[in-house]
Amino acid sequence: QVQLVESGGGLVQAGGSLKLSCAASGSTASIKAIGWHRQTPGKQRELVATISSGGRTNYADSAKGRFTISRDNAQNTVYLQMNSLKPEDTAVYYCNADWVAGSLTFGSWGQGTQVTVFS
């Protein structure tokens, strides 16, 4: 199994930056991809960015040009650098890992970290 712990959320003024971390533990060698998602009350969770085990990245339109997803394989940690933050980026940010066991694919989620952007 894979366990995930997010950190780095907080309160920031619009235009500022935050760097979120997602630390993975357990069967980290089985991870195929890790993504960052976010959710606000009353709305569905939405994808922000993903990074595959091969390093391929993908971003939501809202994140392109402002957010950067990266990873440190030695630390089993994925980061989300968020720049030029806007009030509409306010949400709980979750990381998710897709990992395999045999022929099956599973998903694990972290507990989330709150990001609040004020104007």
The proportion of residues forming helix, as a percent range, comes to under 10%
Topology pattern, helix = H, strand = E: EEEEEEEEEEE
Judging from the principal axes of the Cα atoms, what is the shape? elongated
User: What is the overall number of helices?
Assistant: 0
Question: Could you tell me the mean pLDDT?
Answer: 97
- This entry's quaternary arrangement is single chain
Instruction: Please state roughly what percent of the residues sit in beta strands, choosing from under 5%, 5-15%, 15-25%, 25-35%, 35-45% or over 45%.
Output: over 45%
- Nearest-angstrom radius of gyration? 14 Å
What's the β-strand tally?
11
By secondary-structure content and strand pairing, the structural class works out as mainly beta
Main sheet, how many strands, which sense, barrel? 7 strands, mixed
